[in-house]
Amino acid sequence: MNQAVATGATGAKGEIFGTPIFGPAAAQKGYALNKMCFSFNDAANRADFVKDEAGYCARYGLTAEQTDAILKRDLLRLLAHGGNAYYLAKFAGILGLNMQDIGALQTGMTVEQFKAKLLAARDN
Amino acid sequence: MARIVGGLAASHVPAIGGAMAKGLQKDPYWAPFFDGFAAPNRWLDEVKPDAAVVIYNDHGLNFFLDKMPTFAIGAAPEYRNADEGWGLPVMAPFTGDTSLSWHIIETLVDAEFDPVTCQEMLVDHAFSLPMELFFRDRAHAIPAVPVVVNTVQHPLPTLARCFKLGQAIGRAIESHPEDLKVVVIGTGGLSHQLEGERAGFINKEFDKRCMDAMTGDIDSILRINQRDLVELAGSQGVEVMNWVAMRGALLGDVRELHRNYHLPISNTASGIMLLENRPKLARAA
Hints:
The complex is a heterodimer of chains A (about 120) and B (about 280).
Chain A: H1 24-29, H2 31-39, H3 43-51, H4 53-59, H5 64-71, H6 75-80, H7 85-95, H8 99-107, H9 111-120
Helix pairs in contact in A: 2-7, 3-4, 4-5, 8-9
Chain B: E1 3-10, H1 14-21, H2 31-34, H3 38-47, E2 51-56, E3 71-74, E4 78-79, E5 94-95, H4 98-110, E6 116-118, H5 125-135, E7 144-149, H6 159-174, E8 181-187, H7 204-213, H8 218-222, H9 226-233, H10 240-249, E9 253-265, E10 268-278
Parallel strand pairs in B: 1-8, 2-7, 2-8, 3-6
Antiparallel strand pairs in B: 1-10, 3-7, 4-5, 9-10
């Protein structure tokens, strides 16, 4: 029961800028949200979601905050409310967004700026 | 007895599947990645392995957070791919080797590893893409054993634990009574991060360190804790855990035959490696 000995990512050492850790707290907070995103593996579920997004969120028991963030495509808020990147990627798939679109949305860059940032890593 | 002839590693990104479906292998954006498979393909044609053990992470196709195993092993005669939600064509099923699967499971449990065993298991792009890229025409025929490592939900197993798992898998394969040439594949990485304000993070220097460590100072990598691994490799770059487990399985003398490093493919720094594994030479007393 000694929390201080934890050496994993949720352990005592400092946070990493802009890097949510999907650990016990997020896993609990985001369970319904991630379960909804998991359901998007099924094409029929994706179609149901598109027909009535808020109703679909309600069916999975998302909080008002999570539902609002889904409706507004607010990825940072979805992460803050327990969303997991691997599952949220299925939501991004419904929206027809690729990973550079997603990156741009989260970093406040244009897609071109975000792609330039990726390329710049060659020279680092 | 079965023997491990080599280890292979490759990144897995859904966009690779999209590029393959569209035939973009020679496209200037994609060629530096796909060309990296030419050398492993030639080697595999020469060596002709009989089976593959593939260590990867599931991205919410087979496993959800309701039951999230730290380690899981397939024990099925066939592994199906399925719709992952992001528009990739569903691939034909892959072939299992239940005899090798159960031998590995029994040996691991004897060695105090306790994986979840799966007689039905969907395999996602992290398994299917490297299988197709490495084995091409044989991808769906070569008997495979999928091994899943949790990279999704912290606490993740430590790098040291992943390496020991690999060692135990290596000992299991080499005690398998069938006369098989086996390759062990680790997929995922290298550095990348999809989420948060740090999305787009790539760390070329750390990636090189990891690739060098495959035939060098692996211990320095094994000492990195999971928090620091996230910082160094990015949230999804932690998938290098699968490479470390693969490396652990190579119990002989290991030599690097090929590497390819290219960035970015999608948001990811791609690494491809081919490691030869030869029985350790008897040392003088």
